[in-house]
Amino acid sequence: MHALEKELGAVLFHRTGRGMTLTSAGHGLLGPARRILRETRQAEAAVSAGPRRSAPRLDIAALPPALNGPLAEVVAAFLRANPETVVHVHELGSEQEAVDVLASGTAEIVATRLPLDIGHAGDRLATLPLGTYDVYVAHPPGAGPAGAGHGPPIGVTELRDVPLVLMPPRPTLSAGMAAVIEESGPHLVGRAVVGQQETRTAWMLEGIAATLLGSRRAAEAERHGARLAPLRGVTGLTVGLAWDPRTASPVARLFAASAYAEATRSPAAPAPPGSAPPGGGPARPGGTPADPGT
């Protein structure tokens, strides 16, 4: 490591006792180093004919609302056409982290809400809208709106006295939903706070309290007897992909092109909960993206 620092003419680590932390120069080298290693593995996979060759790998970071639905559909289409590739997906903490995640090489593609509200830092990123989703208040079976299916839309202020299963505070709300909640100023009643979306749905179905769900999970919950009410003012939220075309590897560019083809091939919007068949419908493209191959 000392030899590398001498060759580069920069200190890469702060050495403190038995530990080390990256300097600003080290952080600057981290992204390019990860990209070099990634492209080296991909080059080895491309020329190796042996049975033990390493599979091409694509790293994706995704916000929770993007995981179930549009992202799953484009990943499935990509893997059908490229079965030798392995896709690794980890959670993106917030849309503000998108630029740092791409710059550090932690992921080459981020699945997030669009448009990105991250200032000029996001201007260099290419984006591809994949689909939209709404937010529903899901009540336990036998509670909430009278009868099965949908009740009338409910505003955030009307949730003041509705016990809810909530997620811990975290910066993953869309700008639109955050604005609605901030402007309405309700005091949401948290009967339980859990970190996993699957647990929120399960606990709601057990009758613990209502919860907030996106379109896909709301449709699944409705099939198990939940009663839904659309959350007024929080509709048509867009999810999509973002990547840096200047640093994207061949596999990342191939994925972006595949996602664009899948999005434009499926122009129909998913049916809302209550009218969709099991499994939901296809994603709805939200616009014309930058050329995914550039």
UniProtKB/TrEMBL annotation:
Highest taxon listed in the record's lineage: Bacteria
Bias-annotated ranges (Pro residues): 269-280
A GO molecular-function annotation: DNA-binding transcription factor activity
Chain segments annotated as coiled-coil in the UniProt record: none
Low complexity bias: start-end ranges: 285-294
Start and end residues of each stretch annotated as Disordered: 262-294
Keyword Transcription regulation: yes
Assigned GO CC terms: protein-DNA complex
Keyword annotations: DNA-binding, Transcription, Transcription regulation
Matches recorded under InterPro entries: LysR_HTH_N, LysR_subst-bd, WH-like_DNA-bd_sf, WH_DNA-bd_sf
HTH lysR-type domain sequence ranges: 1-23
Record-linked Pfam families: HTH_1 (PF00126), LysR_substrate (PF03466)
Keyword Transcription regulation on entry: yes
Listed PANTHER family: HCA OPERON TRANSCRIPTIONAL ACTIVATOR HCAR, TRANSCRIPTIONAL DUAL REGULATOR HCAR-RELATED
UniProt record similarity statement: Belongs to the LysR transcriptional regulatory family.
Protein name: DNA-binding transcriptional LysR family regulator
Organism: Actinomadura coerulea
Taxonomy of the source species: Bacteria, Bacillati, Actinomycetota, Actinomycetes, Streptosporangiales
